[in-house]
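Lecture notes, unit on protein representations.

Consider one protein chain, 216 amino acids long.
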Amino acid sequence: MKTFLRTLVVLASLSPLACSAATTEEYKLGQHYMKVRQAVAPANPAKIEVLEVFAYSCPHCYSLEPLVRKWRERLPADVEFVRSPHSLGMSQNEPRNRAFYAARMLNVLDRFHPALFDAVHKERKTMATPADLRALFVQSTGLKGEEFDGAFGSFAADAGFRRGENAIRDFGITSVPTMVVDGKYFVSPNMSNGLEGLLKVTDHLIERARKERAKR
């Protein structure tokens, strides 16, 4: 009898812990994330698009980079991650952003993007002139300066820059870093309790978008 009672006491003491461990955090619209002002269908309708809006001048965006790098490794096959730089109305960001689109055109963004972030925040370089960006581009990608010149000054890079700025404005985004999921919802660190929380809420929104698509 005593053994049976002791067992009941142990089970009673463990049950609250078990219930606590089983609960999941609930994220709410209007509190942890918001709807965009103007929804935009993803460029690839077969994928759930996660768009990171960032600025090269933003230290929080730079701090987010290593977290995003690890997070991207576990994204499911139905999710597509893309980036869009925001000028934030700062003149030094405009040539940096045009260089971003030039690197994307030349398929070397994965090499140039982290190098530019490091140059601005780690090495404390201005990186706001075409000449500085050209030198970094050649150093980080191994391509020729003439290739950068052609892409940087191209109509396509200019169009990409303007299209990105307009889309961010239409979404109603005024701060960075921000994640936009499936062109419908967005979340920032202020809403999600920091950078790691930003990615957790993004995961939640990916699942929400997946369920919404299944109902179509």
